[in-house]
TrEMBL record:
Pfam families in alphabetical order: FAD_binding_3
Pathway annotation: Cofactor biosynthesis; NAD(+) biosynthesis; quinolinate from L-kynurenine: step 1/3
Cofactor: FAD
Record-given protein name: Kynurenine 3-monooxygenase
Keyword Hydrolase among UniProt keywords: no
Keyword Nucleus belongs to the record: no
């Protein structure tokens, strides 16, 4: 340890990580007039342009919006977000199928990760209670002495700082969590999918026009793999190919430009003419892994609390990782309202409430991968979705589709998942009696639906 320790003011709150969740958490904490210090390993993204020169977008939904509105930036973000009202599925022949996400006007929103991070950092910088330090990598957390070693990534110089309450918002490979991992009875697991992902681009058309439907999330489901695309403001789309690492159709099998082109010509034929930089993107952009991380406890006394991906990294197929991390901020704020400066109770209560929901969301995310890459291409599945929306329209108080509960409600994830599993069982019993949407109105089917609804109501009372 270097000799000199810089002491923070008493009751200073230290946030490790100035990414999406760290920056938002700092804004919430500073509202209570605590001095908040944020340390971020990377350079200030507002000065360096987009990470790795690429713009990557994320789907923001109701839980995320609520958290942003809580610090007064809902409108600002909305003005640069693109609503996606539906999934558009592209089959191998280029035929399109449309599936609305919810009721009319319900949408998930495509936002730029960097753009959103910059908005949050601007706001943090303007806040007199928050100090931001970039290029500061957390190297060591000394729990016993409540000290941190931070290394300046530009000069290599190290400094030691004391902390009183430390919030680990330093992402899936959290340095703060790695220290908790060495404490007694700390549970930890990480699970990688056999799939990786690669970011690709559909270019803007002439005059910045969107070359495929703008207000939609596009999916090319292909059974064991898939590509998705989300719109950008400049007319382009960010595509993500989710693809096995190994096997006959895999990243390993595509080693040359002509192989990539031939593969896309065969399986993503309608997208290929819109991806003029395909080979360059494919070999320049990294193949990244997909991990689920679970751990517990998320806190240590009144000293440390993990937030966002540091405590619950999930695979991206439900578009909820950031939303869940933002919801962490909302819940933390509510608990600070209830328990004031009793940090230990706040931390305990936070992990008690959030852990089951994070676990459920992790399961839901894996479940949705199967749905997106495989089931959405199945006509029976799409029929089932239509029947579900008929049931939901007929019994709005009793039946909210699972996707709606996760994306357009604030129902705790664990509750949504349990409801979804009950609904799944009902649909498995109903669907053998239904061959087309019109069958839903048959008296025999209506009688079955009525019976299921009665059973559901009884099981919930
Ligand atoms: P991060 O965004 O990882 O931020 C952590 C920050 O901590 C970083 O800035 C990092 O530089 C910094 N840091 C790390 N280590 C240190 C250290 N030692 N010292 C100091 N600083 C450190 N979520 C959605 O809601 N919707 C989506 O559509 C969506 N799509 C996704 C698509 C993909 C391909 C992936 C991979 C994820 C997606 N997610 C999505 C999930 C989302 O990206 C994460 O849940 C979110 O970024 C978590 O935010 P965070 O702040 O907790 O972590």
């Amino acid at each position: 340890f270097p000799d000199s320790v810089v002491s923070s003011q008493p009751e200073t709150l230290t946030v490790m990580g100035g990414g999406l969740v760290g920056a938002l958490a700092a804004l919430y904490l500073a509202r209570r007039n605590y001095p908040v210090e944020v340390y971020e390993r990377r350079a200030d993204p507002r000065q360096t342009g987009t990470t790795e020169g690429r713009s990557i977008n994320l789907a923001l939904s109701d839980r995320g919006w609520r958290a942003l509105e809580g610090v007064g930036i809902g409108e600002q973000v909305r003005s640069v977000a693109i609503p996606m009202y539906q999934r558009v599925m592209h089959d191998q022949q280029g035929k399109l199928t449309y599936q609305p996400y919810g009721k009319e006007n319900q949408a998930i929103y495509s936002v730029s990760r960097n753009g959103l991070n910059r908005v949050l950092l601007d706001l943090a910088e303007a806040n007199p209670h928050i100090s931001l330090a970039f290029n500061q990598q957390c190297q060591v957390v000394d729990l016993r002495n409540r000290q941190l070693v931070l290394r300046d990534t530009t000069t290599g110089q190290e400094q030691v700082r004391s902390f009183r309450h430390l919030f680990g918002a330093d992402g899936a490979y959290s340095a703060v969590r790695s220290v908790l991992q060495k404490t007694d009875r700390f549970d930890y697991s990480q699970h990688y999918l056999n799939y990786g992902y690669k970011e690709l681009t559909i270019e803007a058309g002439p005059g910045g026009a969107w070359q495929i439907e703008k207000n939609a999330l596009h999916i090319w489901p292909r059974g064991q793999y898939m590509m998705i695309a989300l719109p950008n403001l400049d007319g382009s789309f960010n595509c993500t190919l989710f693809f096995p690492y190994e096997g006959p159709q895999s990243f390993t099998a595509l080693q040359t430009g002509p192989q990539v082109r031939a593969f896309f010509a065969e399986v993503f034929a309608d997208a290929l003419p819109l991806m003029s930089d395909l080979e360059e993107d494919f070999f320049r952009n990294p193949t990244s892994s997909l991990v689920t991380i679970r751990c517990f406890p998320w806190s240590l006394a009144d000293e440390v609390l993990l937030l966002g991906d540091a405590s619950h990294a999930i695979v991206p197929f439900y578009g909820q990782g950031m939303n869940a991390g933002f919801e962490d901020c909302t819940v933390l704020d509510e608990l600070l309202d209830q328990h004031g400066t009793d940090w230990q109770t706040v931390f305990q209560e936070f992990q008690r409430q959030r852990k089951p929901n994070a676990d459920a969301m992790a399961d839901l995310a894996v479940y949705n991968f199967e749905e997106m890459r495989d089931r959405v291409a199945d006509p029976r599945f799409l029929l089932r979705k239509k029947i579900e929306s008929r049931i939901s329209a007929q019994y709005p108080d009793q039946w909210m589709p699972l996707y709606t509960q996760v994306t357009f409600s604030h129902t705790p994830y664990a509750e949504a998942w349990a409801n979804g599993q009950r609904q799944d069982q009902i649909m498995q019993r109903l669907m053998p009696h239904i061959q087309s949407e019109a069958d839903y109105d048959l008296p025999t089917v209506q009688a079955l639906v009525q019976q299921e609804m009665n059973n559901l109501a009884n099981s919930q009372t």
